[in-house]
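Running this now, will post back.
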Amino acid sequence: MSPRDAQLARSPLCQHRKMRAPRLASVLAAAVATIWLPVGELIAAPDASADACPDVEVTFARGTNEPPGVGGVGQAFIDSLRSQAGDRSVGVYAVNYPATDAFASSSMAGAGDARAHVQSMAASCPQTKMVLGGYSQGAGVIDVATNDLAGVVDHVAAVAVFGNPQSAFARRLGGGRLPNISPLYQPKTINLCVPDDPICSEGRDGAAHVAYVQTGMTNQAASFAADRL
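Update: finished.
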């Protein structure tokens, strides 16, 4: 260090800057903390709004090997129901389950998730009218779940199932067992089967099992549910 540099380092201005550095860091940290709290509160507000109870909620279980979500049939049904629900808000819960070819274990996992969610909604949002739905394996999931939902039957306005496993072929796929919807829920259930669908009937037309949107049955089910809201 040159004599001039050494002299500058000892100067009052330089010493003042050194003293200011930690103080500035503290001030900045305090400012960030002060700013962060209101931002956190602002972020929390939409979350609280999102958690508000909807007028209607659809709990839907997708079909086998569809990606996570409500699936194609489920989305068409929900879109149609929303268009018929007037100014009522419609929430959606996609049943969280594997939807794999391991039908017995997969559908039981789905039934458990659907049951837990419906019971939770009935407790936390007692004024929300729930609609249960499922397609293919997902229809079986809803069937099974209803048998453990006797205590919340009054919270469920309607049930809509598409391609519900009911055939001998479906029984073989399911390991010899077929799901049945609870008698408590049958009066509020629409159970739709495209003619010759080999999953819900003894037909042999595989294309029929993927024709629920094209045949207008998702709209038919939505009208059934909307009339019961």
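The helical segments are 3-9, 12-50, 71-84, 103-124, 137-146, 168-173, 217-226. More later if anyone needs it.
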